[in-house]
Amino acid sequence: MYHVKEAFYTLQGEGGQAGRASVFCRFSGCNLWSGREQDRAAAACRFCDTDFIGTDGQHGGRFEDAEALAKHLAALWPDREEPGERAAIPHVVFTGGEPLLQLDEALIREMHARGFEVAVETNGTLPAPAGIDWLCVSPKGDNALAVTGGDELKLVHPQADAPPARFARLDFDHFFLQPMDTGPAAIPGETTADTMAETVAYCLAHPRWRLSLQTHKIAGID
Question: What pTM did the predictor assign?
Fold first, then answer.
């Protein structure tokens, strides 16, 4: 049984795949926070701005098996290419909450069987199943990583207990630093403009790190 908060077709907004048309599948649940505001202060991750409770979102629900969920997600990919146009490779992003609480090899196989490349955005604290095509780890605080290599490490910055230097020697192909959006979980005395300036300065001083912006928010899309 898979529990999905929401699923939708959009453009990837962040990191190395930014701008790419993608089906997003947001799983319910996380191992670092309950998702309830009353638990935020004591959570292992305290700055999340995502609703991942329940299955009541757009195209959300409970799915009995991998085939049922894969069929549901594949139906969200458009068939809109013009005659003679080279078709894009379908792309699905599994996120959360924490997707590795639910994503398994059976679901990855079903998505591959439908022609999809499979991407994952995870906090990296749980082992990843085999077969993922694009693995993005976004570390949260001082929580230990079970995944120390992959395609992309995307670190929200600044985090007092997660300095970039701690991750710079891990086995990732790309390193991104993303300014923290100081919305509902604002850093006391700091604004989003402050975190942007600090992140830009760090990337300039440490050029292995590339700036990642939340372009979906800039563009006004999901």
Answer: 0.93
